[in-house]
Design goal:
The protein is mainly alpha-helical and 183 residues long. It contains 6 helices and 2 strands; from the N terminus they run αααααββα. The longest helix is centred in the C-terminal third of the chain and has 27 residues.
Length: 183
């Protein structure tokens, strides 16, 4: 199967020489663009396709990463309520709501939700850096519903880890759908 580079060539390269915040955000943006490329151009049915033995779908990944963005940056850093449908979800009845509810959303809804959450996250981080400069990475927040203390640095590294792991899943799922391969 041939690599299809149109989306790959549009990803922003992380800076090779930069400060800590710029490096972290550069890799996060690179991984967000990689994920967008892996989910781009697929219809609703393709976003629901699974690869045995897993029940994971690209639509589920879109919804899960929307929730991850919203939870870690909007809720924990900015203390802004999650967007719908996450705000009113019955998480006790379905602890995997971010994954399972994707099956009832269209691709346009899933992409729109993810894009909205990514943009909210970008604004939150940009405002923190504008206010605090490099010290923003040391900003400590209390994790929602817990006494655990986390820094913005930890949250951004965690976001990079989430996207890196799920871009690997997206690689396999996308290749099984239409043969698109590539980094």
């Amino acid at each position: 199967m041939a690599e299809q580079n149109s989306g790959a060539s549009q990803r922003p390269e992380p800076p090779a020489v930069a400060g800590e915040a710029e490096t972290l955000l550069g890799f996060l943006e690179f991984l967000r663009a990689t994920f967008a490329w892996k989910t781009d151009g697929l219809d609703d049915e393709q976003l629901r396709a699974t690869l045995a033995p897993s029940s994971m779908t690209l639509g589920g990944l879109l919804n899960h990463l929307a929730f991850v963005e919203d939870y870690w940056l909007s809720l924990n850093v900015a203390r802004v309520a999650p967007i719908e449908p996450f705000a009113s979800a019955d998480w006790d009845a379905d602890p995997d709501y971010d994954w399972t509810s994707a099956a009832t959303s269209t691709g346009a809804e899933l992409r729109g939700r993810w894009e909205e959450c990514v943009e909210r996250s970008r604004v939150i981080v940009a405002e923190a850096i504008a206010d605090e400069g490099a010290a923003a990475l040391d900003l400590t927040v209390k994790r929602w519903g817990s006494d655990e203390q986390l820094t913005l640095r930890w949250i951004l590294v965690h976001m990079v880890e989430e996207y890196a792991r799920h871009c690997g899943h997206a690689d396999l799922l996308r290749e099984s759908i239409d043969g698109l391969v590539g980094e």
